[in-house]
Amino acid sequence: QVQLVESGGGLVQPGGSLRLSCAASGRTFSMYATGWFRQAPGKEREFVTAITWRGGSTYYADGVKGRFIISRDSAKNTVYLQMSSLKPEDTAVYYCAADGRVRSYYGRDVAGDPKEYGYWGQGTQVTVSS
After folding, report:
1. Distance CA 94, CA 36 (A)
2. CA distance readout (Å), 92 to 8, 45, 47, 86
3. Which whole number is the average pLDDT over 22-32?
């Protein structure tokens, strides 16, 4: 089992920045990748970004490329999501998720599918508003 705890959400003005953290505990050695998803009221959960633990490969949704950066600290078993140039449409609950499967292939299609992740955090609210 892997436990995930997100932090860093809050209220920020449009154009501002925020950094989210996702701390993992438990069988962290089994994690292949960690991703961020978000869900706005009345909308489906959508992929934001993901990173693999061994190679550090990153994947982004088109709407956040150039504004969001995902990174990891292996020593702390923590993944970060640096969000800049935030827009009101970025408002959502942001969830951290971990993929614990053994994989021979990993690409954008896998990274972006919530069904590929077996572990989820409780979510943290991000509100972008003036």
Report:
1. 7
2. 13, 9, 12, 12
3. 88
